[in-house]
């Protein structure tokens, strides 16, 4: 018997301030066949910038207001819904979700021959014209960075082109925020949980 996937699902990625360096809130994805609605409600005001500065020298004495964000393929932080610094390493969270081999520099297939000679051209303009140019997990490539205003991120995006379907969803995925510090970035990652199927 082949299980039938639901037509839609709500997946919530939770930032627990106790483990995500003070960042609190959620990124919620309402995944449907035609489009996915992504809503971020995050409070960055109490972020542990001391830990961030210690892990990334380029973040020292900067007010971080901008974040790259991606779906990563792995979560190896047992018992935790979110993490900061060491818990956000490649070993703990893997690379970007890229089932269609768009082959960005952080694709989960980057070491495979299929990606060897590809040039990655994902940005908001190219994505609007041809969604396949972006990794499914490259959310900042598709929509731009998340921006905090007065310490808060409150924004909604609609992905009509290339978001992973309900049938492809894996419980091991995480959404990673990378603080943009000049030309450097650093990671804060939540795990997620499904709250509803219909």
UniProtKB/TrEMBL annotation:
Listed InterPro entries: SOD-like_Cu/Zn_dom_sf
Name the UniProt record assigns to this protein: Uncharacterized protein
GO biological process: superoxide metabolic process
Domain of life of the source: Eukaryota
Molecular function (Gene Ontology), one example: metal ion binding
Species the sequence originates in: Aphanomyces astaci
């Amino acid at each position: 018997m082949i299980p039938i996937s639901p037509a839609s699902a709500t997946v919530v990625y939770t930032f627990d301030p106790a483990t995500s360096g003070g960042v609190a809130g959620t990124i919620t994805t309402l995944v449907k066949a035609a489009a996915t609605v992504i809503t971020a409600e995050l409070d960055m005001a109490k972020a542990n910038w001391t830990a961030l500065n210690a892990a990334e020298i380029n973040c020292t004495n900067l007010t971080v207001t901008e974040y790259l964000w991606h779906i990563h393929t792995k979560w190896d932080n047992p018992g935790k819904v979110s993490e900061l610094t060491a818990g956000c390493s490649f070993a703990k969270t893997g690379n970007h979700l890229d089932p269609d081999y768009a082959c960005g520099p952080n694709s989960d297939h980057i070491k495979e021959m299929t990606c060897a000679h590809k040039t990655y051209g994902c940005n908001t303009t190219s994505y609007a014209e041809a969604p396949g140019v972006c990794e499914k997990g490259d959310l900042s490539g598709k929509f731009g960075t998340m921006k905090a205003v007065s310490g808060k991120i409150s924004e909604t995006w609609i992905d009509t082109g290339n978001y992973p379907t309900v049938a492809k969803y894996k419980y091991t995925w995480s959404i990673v925020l990378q603080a943009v510090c000049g030309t450097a970035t650093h990671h804060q990652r939540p795990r997620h949980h499904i709250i509803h199927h219909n």
